[in-house]
Structure formats: structure tokens, C-alpha cells
Amino acid sequence: MTRTARAYTNIALIKYWGKKNKQLKLPYTNSLSLTLDRFYTDTKASIVDSDQDIIYLNQQLLDDAHSKRIRNYLDIVRQFYSFSEHFQIDSVNHVPTSAGFASSASGFAALAAAVNETKQLNLNRRELSILARNGSGSASRSIYGGFVEWIAGNDNASSFAQPIDEHPDIDLSILSVVIDTQNKKISSTVGMENSVKSSPFYPNWVTLVTSEIEEIKQAIAKKDIQKIGEISEHNAMSMHALTLSANPSFTYFAPETIRIIQIIQELRQKGIFAYATIDAGPNVKIICTKESLPKVQTYIEQQLSNVTTVVANIGSGIEYI
Ligand code: DP6
């Protein structure tokens, strides 16, 4: 019996934003994330007698256009490990209705693990992280639980994630605030490419991330949650400054995104622990403590009628079920 691979999504506290090698998805900088327990992808790979991969997502057969990225990825995997079989991929995303989490991190981590299982490649977690990275950069980190650092590296073999603390005993929870938006989404791949190409601040970003990675690792070691919150929020805002300063300028923020950032500042002034982090979309992930989370949640829901919230805690690495 082939087991199903399960991978959880992760939220970057120090963001990956820019590739020095597009084909290999080698980033300019290290990045650091927290794996979450609520959002995951279950994927099973079965070998089929066909010259094409067949991809099901949430029980629906994907057409050529929607399965292209996955089929291209499976071509890379076949080339890496010198085999020729094709797969039927059955992948299910367990994400509370539009929780606003990108599924590419959990998706490609689960896919890499599923192929590893079916083809009995016996990859260790470092090799699995490298394989997942070739699907989507952030997927390299979803191999591990807890706090994870992706080492940028210089070639395919040296760019992988590694755990910092897989089961941290630390009082942090994430409140995801989901904003409905009609905005056409600019993918992270395109957004980071435009930022690297045209933001005059990109070189400063590389310098900033290098120092913030070290600072946040020290804060994690000391369980200094306030420092973790401060550095994470500053890093997220600096990433979004790269989109605003790109030419042409663009932003992932919706009006509600700004409103939530202001609310978080108001809450802090009232002594309530809350820090924002935002990925390539309008939704805000709020870093809270167990104590502050219900207060933050109630306040946000009172102030904004058109948002939904989802609570997540620290999650684990790849599992086979
Ligand atoms: C803002 O991993 O989705 O979430 O490697 O092009 O697939 P590709 O990009 P992706 O980018 C994630 C960007 C981010 C920050 C992060 O997760 O580090």
C-alpha cells in the first residue's frame, strides 16, 4: 500500500523574496518560517501506464493549463532520479474555506514526499527539501515542523531548509484574517521577479534579511516573543516596500489590509500582543499569544464586517498516513 504524504503550510517570518537562479529557485537570501497546524495538503502518487501525468486536485481532474506547473515539476523529478514512469496524483488541500493561505508550500512539499514514497527513493529530509524547493521555494521549508530556516545556497545541492526548533515550547499562535478581494492576483513568482528587477531598494533588502535572520534566531533561542513579533512585522513591511518601490509599482494590500495594520498598532498601544505579517496577497496573519488572540480576534471582527478569521498553532513536518 502506498502511503499518502501530508505536508503543512508555513508562514515566513523572514521572507523569501527574490531568486538569483529562476530555474533552480535559488533565493538571494535565507528565509525563516513557522510551520502551521491547520492548513495541510494530502497527496498520493500512483504509477500509471500512461505517457502523461494525471492530476486530481480536491477530487477534480485538472485540465492541461491548470496542471502544467505540476507536470513540469514531475518532469524535473523524473530527470533528477532517472526514471520514466508517469503518475496519477491525488491531492487534497485541507484549508478552512478560503483561509487565504497559499497552497504551493504544502502542495509541493506533499508532492515531493508522495513521489519519494511511491518510487521508494528513500530520500532523507534534506534531499526532500531540495526536491520540494524545485517545485516552489517556500515548499522547501514545509518538510520540517516548528521554526525552519531555508539556507539560500549556491547550487541545487546546497539550497535546502533545516529545522531550528521543530517542537518549540513557545507561546505563539497565528490569527489569519481573510479579506475578500476582487483584485487580480500577481503571483509571488512574478511579484518577486519585478521587485528584484526594478526596486532601487532590492540590495538593501538583501542586507536587511541577512541581519534580521540572525536577530530572529537569537530571539527564538531566548523565547523572546516580543522581539520575534517586532522583527517579523518589520521584515514583512520591508518586503511590501519592495513592491511599492518597483517600477511599475504594485501592491498586494487591499484597503482592509491597511486598516488591519492600523488596528494592530492600536492594539499594541493598549498593551495587547499583536504583530502583522503579510505574504503575496491582501490577507494579514497576526502573530499573537494564547492570551492576546481572543482579544485580537474579537476586536478585528467588531471593526471589520467583511473579514473572516482562522486560528492556527505550530505544526509538524512531513507525515505519511
Ligand atoms: C511572500 O514559494 O510561492 O510567501 O518559489 O516562485 O513558487 P516560488 O514562490 P513562493 O513564494 C513565497 C513568497 C512569500 C514569502 C515566503 O514564503 O518566504
CATH class of the largest domain: Alpha Beta
Helix-and-strand structural type: alpha+beta
Domain count, please report it.
2
Question: Mind summarizing the main beta sheet?
Answer: 8 strands, mixed
Query: Architecture of the largest domain, according to CATH?
Result: 2-Layer Sandwich
Secondary-structure element sequence?
A: EEEEEEHEHHEEEHHHHEEHEE
Number of helices: 8
Mean pLDDT equals 95
The general outline is globular
Number of strands: 14
How far from one another are the termini? 11 Å
GO molecular function: ATP binding; diphosphomevalonate decarboxylase activity
Organism: Companilactobacillus mindensis DSM 14500
Family: Belongs to the diphosphomevalonate decarboxylase family.
Pfam families: MDD_C, MVD-like_N
Report on this model:
Its EC number is 4.1.1.33. InterPro entries: GHMP_kinase_C_sf, Mev_decarb, Mev_diP_decarb, MVD-like_N, Mvd1_C, Ribosomal_Su5_D2-typ_SF, Ribsml_uS5_D2-typ_fold_subgr. It is an enzyme of class 4 (lyase). It is a single chain. This protein is α+β, with helices and mostly antiparallel strands. The chain folds into 2 domains: 5-168, 2-Layer Sandwich (Ribosomal Protein S5, domain 2), CATH 3.30.230.10; 173-312, GHMP kinase, C-terminal domain (Alpha-Beta Plaits), CATH 3.30.70.890. Helices cover 37% and strands 26% of the residues. The chain contains 8 helices and 14 strands. The protein has helices at 64-80, 104-118, 125-133, 188-198, 202-221, 225-244, 255-269, 292-303, and strands at 5-14, 19-21, 26-27, 31-48, 54-57, 60-61, 86-94, 147-151, 160-165, 173-179, 275-277, 284-288, 307-312, 319-320. The strands form 3 sheets. Strands 1, 4, 5, 6, 7, 8, 9 and 14 form an 8-stranded mixed sheet that branches. Strands 11-12-10-13 form a 4-stranded antiparallel sheet. Strand 5 and strand 6 (60-61) form a beta hairpin. Helix 2 (104-118) crosses helix 3 and helix 5 (202-221) packs antiparallel against helix 6. The longest helix has 20 residues, at 202-221. It is globular and about 60 Å long. 47% of the residues are buried. The structure holds ligand DP6. Ligand DP6 is lined by residues 12, 15-16, 25, 31, 102, 104, 136-138, 188-189, 279-280.
